[in-house]
Amino acid sequence: MAFLSDRLARVKPSPTVAVTTLAQQLKAAGRDVIGLGAGEPDFDTPEHIRQAAVRAIDEGRTKYTAPDGMPELKEAVCAKFRRDNDLVYTPEQISVGTGGKQVLFNALLATLNPGDEVVIPAPFWVSYPDIVRLCGGEAVIVPTTMADGFKLSAEALEAAITPATKWFIFNSPSNPTGAAYTHDEIRALTQVLLRHPHVHVLSDDIYEHLTYDGFRFATPAQVEPALMDRTLTLNGVSKTYAMTGWRIGYAGGPVDLIAAMRKIQSQSTTNPSTISQWAAVEALNGKQDFLEENRAIFVRRRDLVVSALDAIPGIDCPVPQGAFYVYPSIAGLIGRRSAAGTLIADDEAFARALLEETGVAVVFGAAFGLSPCFRVSYATSDDTLTEACARIRRFCSGLS
C-alpha cells in the first residue's frame, strides 16, 4: 500500500513559486539575479493599515474568531461589495479565509465530485487547474488568443459547457495577461450562463482596483443580477493593499455554499490570523487615496516594460489593461539557439536559458496553459525593470 495519496499525482507544485524560490536561491549563492516572477506589489503595506494591526496587538485582540471571519470584517466586506460593486450581501453570505487561495480551495472542495467539470480559460492563474484536480474535479481548459486580447468569447464558453460542468472560473483583470473584460464582454458571457442553470460562476476579482487608462471594472453578478444565487465573488486585500503576506481573502456567495465552506475551514485552519483580520478591516474601511498613486506607478512601469520588450525583434508584447503583468509572445524566437548553445524549443527553454545566461527570472507560458509566451511581473522598481529589459534584449540579440 502506497503511503502518499493518489490525488497528489494529479497536481504539480506552483511554477510561479518555483521560479521565485530558484531566483532567491541563486541570489543567496551570489548570482546577480533579477526576479520578475513574483505576483506581489513591491509597495509597503500602508501605514494606517499597519497601525491597525499594532493596535490589535496592544489591545489584546489576539484570540480566536469565528472560523470564517469575525463580524467586524464581514461587515466591512459587505460594505465594500455595496460600495464598489453594487452587490448586496449579508454577513452570513461572506467567507473570510487565509488568502484568496484558501477561499477558492474551500469552495471547490465543498462542491466538486469525481467527474465534475470546471471550465477555465487559458492563460490561467497556475493554481486553478491543480486545485480543481486536487478536489476531485476535471479542469476543462479553453484557450484564448492574443488576437482576441486573451479573452474568452461567448461562443467558446458555450462550446465548453457540458452536462458535467459545475463551475466556470472567471478572472478579470487576468493573471497572467492583465486582460480585463468590459461590461459588454461580461454581458455576453452571462447570457450564455443564463442558459445553463447547472453552471456556477467563480469570479476571481483580486486585481479589481488595478486597472488602467480609464477602464471601468465590472464583475459577473453585478452585470447580471440573475446569476447572484450561483456566483461566488472572490477578492482579497493582497494585491490592492500590498498585503500579500497578511493572508486575507474573502468571498460573497449563496448561504448554503458559504456554510459548506465554513464547515471545511472549521476543520482545517479555523480562523485567519486575528491581527490580519483587524488590519483588513482598516484596509477596507479606511482611506483609499493611495490607490490612485499606486495605479499611476504601475502604469508608468507597464509602459516602460511594454515599450522595451515590444521593440525586441521576435517578441510581441501587448498592452495589458490591468494587474501588473505583461504576457509577451516569443513565437518569433522559437527554434533559435542562445549564445551559450541552448535550443529555444519552447517558452520553458527560453525562460531557463534566460535565467542561466542573464540572471533574469520570468515564468514560462506553458505554466499558464498558453505558449509560446512568458510572464513578467512589473511590480518592482523602474531601475530594476530597465536593467531586466536590457538583459532580455541582449539575450535575444545573441540568438542565432
TrEMBL record:
Matching PROSITE patterns: AA_TRANSFER_CLASS_1 (PS00105)
Matches recorded under Pfam families: Aminotran_1_2
GO molecular-function terms, A-Z: L-aspartate:2-oxoglutarate aminotransferase activity; pyridoxal phosphate binding
EC number: 2.6.1.-
Keyword list, A-Z: Aminotransferase, Pyridoxal phosphate, Transferase
UniProt-listed GO biological process terms: amino acid metabolic process
Positions of the Aminotransferase class I/classII large domain: 32-392
Keyword Ubl conjugation carried by entry: no
Signal peptide boundaries: none
Reaction it catalyzes: L-aspartate + 2-oxoglutarate = oxaloacetate + L-glutamate
PANTHER family, per database record: ASPARTATE AMINOTRANSFERASE
Family of the protein in this entry: Belongs to the class-I pyridoxal-phosphate-dependent aminotransferase family.
Protein name: Aminotransferase
